[in-house]
Design a protein that fits this description.
Layout (H helix, E strand, L loop, with lengths): L1 H8 L7 E5 L17 H11 L3 E4 L4 H5 L8 E5 L1 E3 L12 E3 L3 H7 L4 E8 L4 H21 L3 E7 L3 H4 L8 H13 L4 E4 L8 H7 L5 E4 L6 H13 L4 E4 L1 H4 L4 H14 L3 H10 L2
Parallel strand pairs: 1-2, 1-10, 2-3, 3-6, 6-7, 7-8, 8-9, 9-10
Antiparallel strand pairs: 4-5
Helix pairs in contact: 2-11, 4-5, 7-8, 9-11, 9-12, 11-12
Length: 279
């Protein structure tokens, strides 16, 4: 039953979720590894800060699941690997799913499985692969009671913003989010909009499916806290942040500060003060 897994993912007090994404090593991009060179140690640091979930790959999930702790963050399992990141892209791009993704998620006691839905300029073949992945996953997820998180991800042209840069254009984000909903998402993991005050339009188009907001590119502490507060106020059901956590000098402290914003309605100013005094 999906609801039992969703209950592990979303905080029962607030109905919100903070998922820390540390599945970056899957994508063969050296810049993504900063802060997670020693992944078992990074996982232990984050577990101490008690986010709601940690997003991992099949090869790294056992580091979380073997920890003899109760409670501990839920596992969100990454199901697909792609080569679409980097300042210089290869001749042929792909987004491929692991074998038996939902069975692997069940064996690893995951609370959710996540899959990409890319919109990359002039790369319709990659979008087609993503849709095929989702079409295969959806019935399997329903059969095994595994929540399906779809990640609609709008890229800027690589020549303009090579690497991993968010296109925060509302007019591009909304139709891709809607497509993810139509394909059967139980949870949406979506880009932030350039104008955060418009994010309620992304939430509205999800039709009641909870929307977790991606962290996007690196930002300052103050920027990420202010943005998070505004996104929660716009109706987001939580956040999925990666490099703004794992590449922070104090990953546990920034996690706790963001947890305060997400779950305790802490203002960005108060969270920033808390972060400055953290050890």
């Amino acid at each position: 039953m999906k609801q039992s897994r969703l209950n592990r993912l979303f905080n029962p007090r607030t109905g919100r979720c903070f998922d820390v994404a540390i599945d970056h090593g899957f994508f063969n991009e050296p810049s993504f590894l900063a802060g997670i060179e020693n992944l078992p140690r990074a996982i232990e640091t984050l577990v101490d800060a008690a986010p709601d979930a940690i997003q991992l790959t099949v090869g790294q999930a056992p580091h979380l699941q073997k920890l003899p702790l109760r409670p501990k963050p839920a596992l969100v399992l990454r199901s697909d690997v792609a080569n679409v990141y980097g300042t210089t892209l290869p001749r042929a791009l792909f987004s491929r799913m692991i074998e038996e993704p939902v069975l692997q998620a069940v064996r690893l006691d995951a609370a959710c499985i996540v899959v990409n839905l890319f919109r990359i300029p002039d790369q319709p073949e990659v979008a087609d692969q993503c849709i095929r992945n989702i079409l295969l996953l959806k019935p399997q997820c329903d059969y095994y009671g595994m929540p399906l998180m779809i990640e609609p991800l709008v890229f800027q042209p690589n020549a303009k913003a090579g690497g991993y840069m968010v296109d925060g254009d509302l007019q591009k984000i909304v139709p891709l989010v809607r497509q993810a909903v139509e394909l059967g998402a139980d949870i949406i993991k979506a880009d932030p909009t350039d104008d955060v005050s418009l994010y309620h339009k992304v939430v509205e188009t999800s039709g009641g499916i909870p929307v977790l907001v991606r962290g996007g590119g690196k930002a300052t502490e103050k920027e990420i806290l202010v943005r998070t507060s505004a996104l929660i106020a716009q109706g987001a059901a939580g956040i999925v942040y990666g490099r703004n956590i794992i590449q922070h000098p104090k990953p546990a402290a920034i996690t706790r500060a963001l947890m305060g914003v997400v779950h305790d309605n802490l203002s960005a100013e108060k969270a920033f003060e808390q972060l400055q005094t953290a050890s």
